[in-house]
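Fresh eyes needed here. I'd like your take on this protein's tokenised backbone:
***
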Amino acid sequence: MRRMRPISAWRILLLLSTTQGLLGVGREELNAWWYDFFQLGEDDDLGWLGYFIGKSVKLQCLDIQYLPEDDGGEQQMHAFSDGIARNQSIQKVVIDNVSNNRFAAIARALGNLSQLEELVFKRNFNGGRNNVNGFTALGTLLESGVSKLRKLDLVGNNISDAGVAAFAHGLRSIGPSLKELDLGWNSIGNEGLSALVAALVNCTSLEWLNLSDNDFSLAAAGLVSLSDWLQTA
């Protein structure tokens, strides 16, 4: 692992990108981000990175841009996930372009992060059964104890009605902590909208909801229910 510049940070961002990967370490200074970078090579140990994450007390944001199925093998992936599970400082996680299996492993680890406040999940899975399985894992994560989650960004995942049904039970569990929910560009139809409205009953502190560019009709029963819910929330 080649260090390009030294670490001097109190607030850290890790960025994993492509099979070669980028591990970015940044510090906040006068409201601006300054970044130091590491390069992850093909022979680098993903388990070592997990060890670093688990030991860090300053890491606040973990941004996983790409994590292919064969990167490091299952043993290294297990060690990587264990490191995430041990961390006590991460408040924001971004997961972009990972497979169902990889997300399931990460989701199990995130269930231990009671301090997690923001989860951004985009461009993941490839539709079909794997998509449903992945969002079932997301629902389990939301039920697992991420009680401080304030923002859930699921834009652009092609969730569909089946996907909404798969994680809706998790939304019920989050309850009043959730303030922002983004479900734009997800092919959600009338059935999915109805399931979503039923799940939002416990989200009494929701302040921002994005449902743009989905597939439900303006005459959908779920939309009427949503309107009624918004007026009483």
Observations:
- The chain is about 40% helix and 20% strand.
- Strands lie at 2-3, 12-16, 22-29, 32-39, 59-64, 92-96, 118-122, 151-153, 180-182, 208-210.
